[in-house]
Amino acid sequence: MDLGIAGRKAIVCASSRGLGRGCAFALAEAGCDVVLNGRNEETLAKTAADLKARFNVGVISIAADVSTSDGQKALLDACPDADILVNNNGGPPRKDYTELTREAMLDGVVQNMVTPIELIQALVPGMQARGFGRVVNITSMSVRMPIEGLDLSSGARAGLTAFLAGVCRQIAGSGVTINNILPGKMDTDRLRGGFERAAQMSGKSIEDVRKAQAAEIPMGRFGNPEEFGQTCAFLCSVHAGYITGQNILLDGGLYPAAF
Fold it and tell me: N or C: where does the chain have the smaller number of CB atoms within 10 Å of the terminal CB?
């Protein structure tokens, strides 16, 4: 399917690996020029090289922490007129709520709520003026279903969801959409880190933990960054112009609900 976005400019935050990388590759496949971002320069450079080798699109790499003012400025200087913004950022590490300090809570809210809002504030007015824009926020299944130890991440991402529920409708008539993708158990470094933690706590092998968790998912497997990225690219396409304010759950059926 031609997504109708060839030649569009996309900023994909935290895209040197994992789900962000999957989104960047899917948008590049659709013909978008892409601004990549990551904190590890070596990983970022490899992703950029892989992207250039596969697709004939413009690629800019910004090595920076998107949660900082300097990091955001670098992204915006590289692409002030982005048509597409994919908000993504690492979440706070797993920690019991009783162990969270005030500083840790504020950092978590900045990472997963304030930063995406700041980038939207910077880029959406230009999208509105041009009559086209797509914002996709990568949040989490934990916005709907609590996950032990991820209370801070869940709360911050749920706050972002609630904040933008009004904003997306305020700007809907200008050709700009805002949607959220809620990943379940995706085969990423973060998930694999959870296997290691669970193995240490249970005394089981990492492979046994992996198999047990996969068995809990009705589809019997974990998701992957490639299929996640394709969903993101569709939400950024011309075909998704009537979709806004939605939370798209990609979890293989793990969340048990009819609505």
Answer: C
